[in-house]
Amino acid sequence: MPTYTLIAPAKINLLLEIIGDRPDGFHELVMVLQSIDLADIIELKALPGDQIQLNCSHPDVPLDSSNLAHRAATLMQTQFPDRGGVEITIQKHIPIGAGLAGGSADAAAVLVGLDLMWNLGLTQAELQTLGAALGSDIPFCVSGGTALALGRGEHLTPLPDPHQLYAVLAKYRSLSVSTPWAYKTYRQKFGDTYAKTSETQEQRRRSGPSVPLLTAINHQDQEQIPKYLYNDLERVVLLEHPQVLALREKFQQLGCLGTLMSGSGPTVFALMNSREEAQLLKTQLEVAVGDPDLDLWVTQFCCSGIQLQTT
Ligand SMILES: C[C@](O)(CO)[C@H](O)COP(=O)(O)OP(=O)(O)OC[C@H]1O[C@@H](n2ccc(N)nc2=O)[C@H](O)[C@@H]1O
Ligand SMILES: Nc1ncnc2c1ncn2[C@@H]1O[C@H](COP(=O)(O)OP(=O)(O)OP(=O)(O)O)[C@@H](O)[C@H]1O
């Protein structure tokens, strides 16, 4: 049986606005999500029966049914029974608990890979619906690129890709942030400011910080885009982790187009116009911070989600 090798890009949030609560206990969001070329590699091999075997050399990645990739395989077996088992090997490159949707990207790769392996012919929308049952970032990870995400994060509208932007990523290796903790803390601190009705939630969407960013993206006004980066979760995560706030401030001092924490963090990114400028900024931050625990990457915006590796 052939091996299916899939590339699973990470995402950064160019915008994350919290509108209010939903009946299902999640938050109503406005997000602009962007795929980047930092990716996990997922290999799928058919196994007999219905066994799911998970391999990953990264010590912090669970190998049991709590792994999102494992949960994606179980979901596919439930929806499409008697198609066989699968061996999943994850080559981890996306840092864990970083705000980059590492687990979500792996789960999205398993959905796409099993669709191909079992020759199901599912549409991207069908795969995204399956993904939404597992986690709010997974639908975007299936399709990737640049997208507006509403609802819990599963209602996606593709946007023109702001091509040729580069993101320098900075994350302390020893620091991860729990997404549930970030949202729970935000609700505790700012829940009284939430829009409570569907009308007021719609008003927030039409008048919030996403408006100028979406205008700049839709008009492909490259220079304007970085000016309108916005993330509500910074209000809890940067307060809890001052060393992450310091990274954001250092990027600003060194000079970049714009800087923001991605998702629930703690990764902070800074946008630059070229790989050379991004590489220089990475080196400058390395020297300025001088902490061996700080990991840095130079990444480029990419216009796709899960891709089958053909070579
Ligand atoms: C922070 C982001 O990564 C930004 O892209 C996403 O909003 C979170 O995506 P995710 O990690 O796939 O989130 P899920 O696994 O669906 O939910 C994890 C937890 O985050 C909180 N959560 C998530 C999404 C959302 N719209 N509202 C929430 O309050 C809930 O407490 C939930 O139990
Ligand atoms: N395939 C996976 N890769 C990494 N972490 C996983 C995976 N499956 C489950 N996890 C668990 O999920 C937790 C969050 O990891 P993940 O890297 O997805 O966070 P994240 O990038 O912040 O996600 P998001 O940006 O969607 O909030 C980890 O603590 C890990 O235990």
Automatic annotation (TrEMBL):
Biological pathway: Isoprenoid biosynthesis; isopentenyl diphosphate biosynthesis via DXP pathway; isopentenyl diphosphate from 1-deoxy-D-xylulose 5-phosphate: step 3/6
Chain's role: Catalyzes the phosphorylation of the position 2 hydroxy group of 4-diphosphocytidyl-2C-methyl-D-erythritol.
Protein name as it appears in the record: 4-diphosphocytidyl-2-C-methyl-D-erythritol kinase
Active-site residues, as the UniProt record annotates them: 11, 137
InterPro entries: GHMP_kinase_C_dom, GHMP_kinase_C_sf, GHMP_kinase_N_dom, IspE, Ribosomal_Su5_D2-typ_SF, Ribsml_uS5_D2-typ_fold_subgr
Gene name as annotated: ispE_1
Enzyme class: transferase
Organism annotation: Acaryochloris thomasi RCC1774
Keyword Cytoplasm among UniProt keywords: no
Family (UniProt): Belongs to the GHMP kinase family. IspE subfamily.
